[in-house]
From TrEMBL:
Residues 32-260 form the Aminoglycoside phosphotransferase domain. Keywords: Transferase. The keyword Cytoplasm does not apply. This is Aminoglycoside phosphotransferase. It comes from Cellulomonas biazotea. It holds the Pfam family APH.
Length: 293
């Protein structure tokens, strides 16, 4: 699968130009590249800040969603979140909004052995309990999260590209799981992408949840796919127990969540050269979703 093309290269010169024009008091802090994903370039700024700049037009509104809604949601959550501390506006130098956000001194969950993640299951459960509350009508739209899974056309294409040996099992299990009753509750706030690269850990605790670009509202099943994307069977059981106790979730929701886990585990594997850590997380998650409810 072709990696999304970056429409703008955000190099150090551009980052400094933007800072000098809009936040000159930050312009002389050290800058170092912190990675570029599908949607955003990240530059570490000094010891405790980072720049978050879209690299393609389709992702530009996602930064605006974070700027609008993270200040509202962050006080509700029991861990740190990247609430923008400064906002950049479009200019002649750069066409989209951008943010200065906190830099968290923590490690991504994908780098932590899966058996050690059990230590902070309750932390993540408490984040999801706090977040999954009714959202207002003007919450961001996202046609890829919080909605019923699309038909399996795209999944079949991805499975063909990856030539996965378990493709038939994936499709058969998905066919069974999507028969679960649809969500009929209110549209709840959703993170949209709580996989192990967006969960930061320090001292065996969940320290921060990052990348709220897919923030939306709807069926929480897509968020609950993290039970398979992030944990092993013991961790997943503990997460489900705490969430069921707090929220009263039923088996239909967890069946939809497992279907989402199959879908997202395959998506994570699509760019193994550009994002090998995501591909590895996807392979592990797919095995979990296939073998464990």
């Amino acid at each position: 699968m072709v990696h999304p093309l970056h429409e703008i290269e955000v190099d150090e010169a551009l980052a400094r130009t933007l800072l000098r024009a809009q936040h000159p008091d930050l312009a002389d802090l050290p800058l170092s590249p912190a990675g570029t994903g599908w949607d955003n370039a990240m530059w570490r700024l000094g010891d405790d800040l980072a720049l978050r700049l879209p690299v393609r037009a389709v992702s530009a509104p996602l930064v605006e969603h974070e700027q609008r809604w993270l200040p509202v949601l962050a006080p509700l959550l029991p861990v740190a979140t990247p609430v923008p501390v400064r906002v950049g506006v479009p200019s002649d130098d750069y066409p989209w909004a951008w943010s200065v956000v906190p830099w968290f001194h923590a490690e991504p969950a994908w780098s932590v052995p899966v058996e050690r993640r059990r230590a902070w299951v309750d932390d993540l459960a408490d984040v999801l309990v706090a977040l999954h509350r009714p959202a207002p009508p003007d919450a961001p739209d996202n046609p890829f999260r919080g909605v019923p899974l699309p038909d399996d056309t795209a999944l079949r294409e991805r499975l063909d590209r990856l030539a996965l040996p378990d493709a038939d099992r994936v499709l058969a299990l998905r066919t069974d799981l999507v028969t679960a009753p649809a969500w009929d509750g209110p549209s709840l706030w959703l993170h949209g992408d709580p996989h192990p690269a967006n969960l930061l850990v320090r001292d065996d605790r969940l320290h921060a949840v990052i990348d709220f670009g897919d923030l939306t509202s709807g069926d929480p099943a897509s968020d609950l796919s993290t039970a398979w994307l992030t944990f092993d069977a013991d961790g997943r059981a503990a997460l489900r127990d705490r969430l069921d106790h707090a929220c009263g979730w039923d088996d239909a929701l967890w069946r939809r969540a497992r279907a989402w886990a199959l879908h997202l585990a395959v998506v994570l594997q699509m760019h193994p050269v550009d994002h090998p850590h995501l591909a590895a997380a996807g392979r592990r998650a797919l095995a979990e979703a296939l073998d464990g409810a």
